[in-house]
Amino acid sequence: MPSAFQRILVALLLAAFSAPAQAADRIRLALQKTGTGAWEVAVAKAFGLDKQAELELDVVELASTDAGKIAIQNGGADIVIADWLWVARQRGDGAGLVFYPHSTSIGAVMARDAKIKSVADLVGKKLGVAGGPLDKSWLLLRGYAERQGIDLPSKATIVYGAPPLIAEKLAQGELDAALEFWTFAADLEARGLVRAIDMRAVETALGAAAAPIVTGYVFDERFAARNQKALVRFFAVAEKAKRLIATSDAAWKIAAARIGAKDEATLAAYRQRYAEGIPTRSIAEERKDAAALYATLAKIGGSALVGRAASLPAGTFYDPDLDPDPAGAER
Fold it and tell me: Which of 34, 112, 224, 228 is most buried, taking the most CB atoms under 10 A from its CB?
């Protein structure tokens, strides 16, 4: 005959096993398949960081960042990754999107000739620009050149194109230099080309206190209001994944598998530039630098770039330490 203690113990065990497990908070992410956000989620899942944080990360992989912008606008995702300027433009036009820092990684002007070291050295040269006339880095480079009395569009031959095309034209000698995204710049660096002008130096010359944020997690402020605690846990998971990629060879192997077939030198350049882009500053510091750069971008790009907002719209940067306002009272 079971004792009273044994009966109580069995009852407690049955209750423990029959009690429903606490449901994990589900976050839908739409991420570029080969982008760093996808690296981080892959590492987070491989190391169980999502489960530890009681999160269910539901990922849809996309072919481009533009597809992510469409997804966040039509409600197809809770979080995507985009640059703060696009979020500022959307917010200035009335959308309730907000931005939280993801990476400070930015490209560079890459050159075949080590003698090209400044914007003055680009005069008379054929310069490729990854993206179009309103690409943010291109406008910053133009602003930087203007402060030195150089109008790059008229003093150099400018060729716009998709990043892989511009990179190949430079590598093949059809261009003297090229302003490239950071991943393509890392690839060219591993192929023996030189970083003629680092865009971080351009950003600080234009008023940023340090290397400012470039891309971030983008989501609707109403989603933030409903999911503040889950967001805080998600940001913590993302931060842990970033540090693992930078320091753990096992984590880096997972990330590198998403880059594709690259030699060891190229992968090493990717990892170095990625690690350099891990954010370390406060939201307030990032917001201040973004506002300073926004002024230059708005001046050169005009309404075609920034829309109706003459200055960085209030509330663009999300701060989890502040109570989210679903009504957009900060605006």
Answer: 224
245-283 residue pLDDT tens: 999 999 999 999 998 767 888 999 999 999 999 999 999
HEC letters along 130-185: EECCCCHHHHHHHHHHHCCCCCHHHHCEEEEECHHHHHHHHHCCCCCEEEECHHHH
Domain residue limits at 133: 108-205
pLDDT in tens, 51-94: 999 999 999 999 888 899 999 999 999 999 999 999 999 999 99
Last residue of a domain, one of 156, 181, 205: 205
Cα dihedral across residues 96, 101, 102, 104: positive or negative: positive
Question: Quick one: which of 220, 322, 324, 286 has its CA closest to 84?
Answer: 286
With respect to residue 121, please indicate whether it lies within any of the assigned structural domains: yes
CA–CA distance from 41 to each of 14, 124, 239 (Å)? 36, 45, 11
Which residues does 23 contact at the CB level (< 8 Å), separation at least 6?
A: none
- Report pLDDT for 73: 95
264-276 vs 249-256: helix axis angle to the nearest 10? 110
Question: Could you tell me which of 27, 59, 30, 28 has the C-alpha nearest to residue 43?
Answer: 59
On whether both 40 and 120 belong to a single domain, the answer is: no
Q: In angstroms, rounded to a whole number, what is the distance separating the alpha carbons of residues 113 and 220?
A: 45
Report yes or no: 44 and 238 within 8 Å, Cβ to Cβ: yes
Q: What is the mean pLDDT of the chain?
A: 90
- Which DSSP string corresponds to 243-283? HHHHH-HHHHHHHHTTT-S--HHHHHHHHHHHHHTS--S-H
Q: What is the tally of structural domains in the chain?
A: 2
The structure's pTM equals: 0.87
Indicate which CATH number applies to the domain containing 173: 3.40.190.10
